[in-house]
Write a structure and sequence with these properties.
Elements (H helix, E strand, L loop, with lengths): L2 E7 L5 H11 L4 E4 L5 H12 L5 H22 L2 E5 L7 H12 L4 E4 L9 H6 L2 E3 L2 H11 L2
Parallel strand pairs: 1-2, 1-3, 3-4, 4-5
Helix pairs in contact: 1-6, 2-3
């Protein structure tokens, strides 16, 4: 059974590649999709498609419309969502993706360090599973195939 996993979370580390490699090493039948991880592409997509905007507000609005459209399509196609929250960055987009996944009744795994237990308590409560490491999230996926 092939499952598609949407990987929400910060774009400044290689956690997605690590998880993909671990899944491949375990021969898990998973495919992965994600938000746009090229920050400049994400910021500039509105103007790339719609042309130059009259200011930063409009540039951000145009990009947000297209990024939200892309994310919605990817989330709806996903079977499972993993949302990683790290220590270093404020991940508003990750929170939005996790909330959207939960609203769509997508099985959701949240990865967050112990230091974020309190700030993410409501979101963790709504998710199916909350773990502290990428490896633990993969173990949850691996368990599906036992």
């Amino acid at each position: 059974m092939q499952l598609t996993v949407y990987l929400a979370g910060e774009i400044h580390s290689d956690w997605r590649e690590e998880l993909k490699q671990m899944a491949k090493d375990k021969s898990l039948p998973l495919s992965f999709v994600a938000p746009q991880t090229n920050h400049d592409r994400s910021d500039d997509i509105g103007e790339a498609i719609l042309g130059e905007q009259p200011g930063n507000l409009y540039k951000d609005h145009a990009a947000s419309n297209i990024n939200n459209f892309r994310t919605e399509v990817m989330l709806q196609k996903a079977d499972i969502v993993i949302a990683l929250f790290g220590e270093q960055y404020r991940q508003w987009n990750t929170a939005m993706d996790a909330s959207a996944a939960i609203s769509l009744n997508k099985p959701t795994i949240i990865i967050r360090p112990e230091s974020l237990i309190h700030p993410l308590k409501e979101l963790s409560n709504k998710a199916n599973v909350t773990v502290e490491t990428v490896d633990q999230a993969l173990q949850v996926l691996e368990y599906i195939y036992e």
